Amino acid sequence: MPRIARASTLEPMDKQALRLRQTLTVGLGARSYDIVIGTGLLADAAVFGTAAAAPSSAQALIVTNTTVGPLYADRLMQTLSQRHARVSALSLPDGESYKNWETLNLIFDDLLRKGADRKSVLYALGGGVVGDMAGFAAACYMRGIAFVQVPTTLLAQVDSSVGGKTAINHPLGKNMVGAFYQPRLVACDLETLNTLPARELSAGLAEVIKYGAIYDMAFMAWLEENLDALRALDPRALAHAVRRSCQIKAEVVTQDERESGLRAILNFGHTFGHAIEAGMGYGAWLHGEGVAAGMVMAAELSLEMGLTDDSAFAQRLRRLLARAGLPTRGPLIHPADNAGRYLELMRVDKKSEAGQIRFVLTGAAGRAIVCAAPDALVRRVIDRCCAAP
Ligand code: NAD
Ligand code: GLY
Question: What are the Cα distances from residue 335, in Å, to 110, 251, 291, 297, 387?
Fold first, then answer.
């Protein structure tokens, strides 16, 4: 069920909203960019004027989808027309199952038909699916054109719009075809979350909780205090959660942009989670839902491996995820050999080396560790953590 207001009923930006506005920087030398977090951003041309994206005469192409477009594309088009000579929007079909070559080609078709050139700027307006695909299209078109992320889900605001990972899915593996390609700007308009379905808000909370679990136990404690406010879309709580999540992501990405080491910790829960998404068929489980169940499995595997004896951490994580409305058990993805199917899917993972799966696990008090695990232990955890409550 969609939550609260339609986009057209949102209040104009006021002084309080301005106070909530924050700018962070992802420091990557010549590829550095700002993340602006606040309200009223979609209607504020000054926000996009800071993009250093392109000359104001450049053509702007908004990539959105059939759900987000009707809510927000007109407003963004109006705003961008103050900066760009030509602005248009392309609406993609909505859903994880469309994150593929066919849909990516719709973007290239549109760019070519509209005569987009190297000075054109692509704006991704939507959740992580739109952002990942538009970013990949921007990375490839004419060998790279500027793009701006305008994320409209909590998950995209706290995670997928930041850091430059772009991709499409392959039937054999999640996000397996893509590129590292940084945006010129990320504009997180918190007001867009007012129309987000509750299930999608919960999915975003999974990634927020991930940052606490792997990086900042004080943030984890803050989440335990403020989870109800977040689920009620309290603007101050949301602003803090998005800001702290983006800060952590920016800190990690700044140190390891292309995931040669540290950045892998951001995949806590994702190895199991991606197997759930692919195993159930893309779109059946939301990305955040897979990550939630996956984080519990990773915490359990950490105990099984003896990396920690802190079973309280796994319990705490499970409780917080459940309060966020998220699954804490994985689904059965194969009727006869469930664990075997998980293992098969998890071997197709970008962290795998020579066919060996590498998991992000936790040591004492949320310290993340990346390592391999014996299949027998992984099987035991999957058997324990799947399906029946
Ligand atoms: P999504 O993009 O599918 O959006 C979820 C749903 O919400 C969609 O139906 C969408 O149309 C709708 N929606 C979006 N904004 C809305 C709004 N403001 N109001 C009403 N409806 C709205 O899913 P997501 O959770 O945003 O992103 C998941 C994707 O992100 C996955 O494909 C995942 O692999 C990817 N991801 C990428 C990274 C990265 O670093 N690039 C990180 C995490 C996840
Ligand atoms: N979402 C994981 C990453 O950006 O590295």
Answer: 43, 42, 22, 19, 11
